[in-house]
What we know:
The protein is about 75% helix and about 0% strand. By secondary structure, it is an all-alpha fold.
Amino acid sequence: MMEYMILGNAILIALLSCYMAWLVVCGVDAGRVRTLVEDTYRSGIGHISDKYNERRLHREAKKHTRTVSIDMSWPERMELHLVDKSNIRRYLPFMNIYMVMLSSAFIFAGCFGPVYRMVRFIPSSAVLCLILSTLPFMLLDLMAKHNSEMVRRKLAYYVSVLLRWCAVKEDIFYGFEKSVDSGIGEPLRSYTRDLVIQVRRGMDPVKALDILQLKVDNEQFKDFVLNIKQCVKHRGDILKLLGCMEAQFYQIESEYNRRKISTYQDRMTIVLAMLGVVAIAAVFFRSPAVYAYYFDTTQGKWLLTLFAGLYAAGFYIFTKITDFKH
């Protein structure tokens, strides 16, 4: 009878948790975009040396001489999405997607032994360790979103800097080169420096702009790069184009500030709810009967595996609530 009561309570708690999570996620406005992380780590662990950067980009030049939106392998896409967009090479110059996967594998292997000794069930241990092993990917994804938000905030100023330098010499790549040392800040400084080095090393300027466009998940930035590419290909009036885009982006930024779009409170609600689940579970497991049921019986172990999988699914949904679909 005791086992059936425990099972019933566990199912009821799981259903109630799923329902509450569904209500919270449905209440999140996907257009409310704001970063949680402030750029407090400005100096990092040292800047990428220009010499190393040039060698790295020179090795990648052949890979990117085609249209970058197609025919990219899975590792190339993952490296673009996680390593390039997060700008992690600013702090760890030799970082690549294989090092990210290796660190994830180390976390999984290092956690499996302690977790298995606690749970004593391989499927549950694997699910829990898999959640922990995704930490490097989650951190890089959060950094990429933070960088995209920083680019959106600085885009109007960035265009203003380009317009100022293009007024000196009517060449957009001269403007890009000079803007690197004009206080545009990160991550735009690193992205623009990569663009300049790629063009210097002989890459097609349009292809280099394609790579730049893929590094930022922001529609305004993509429109900016698209307009620059069209102007380069058709020899348009770069000063007039930059002047129009400057006014447009300042108006867009003004509207963002007016609406004060943010997901901070919604994210904090979900984080507190997820921490509450862990705290409630810890309280329940203090009961010898509950502990014995979940860790000593096959039925309880499978239920624990199911709950861990649901928790992992909720964590995945949590990472997607800031996605903005235009």
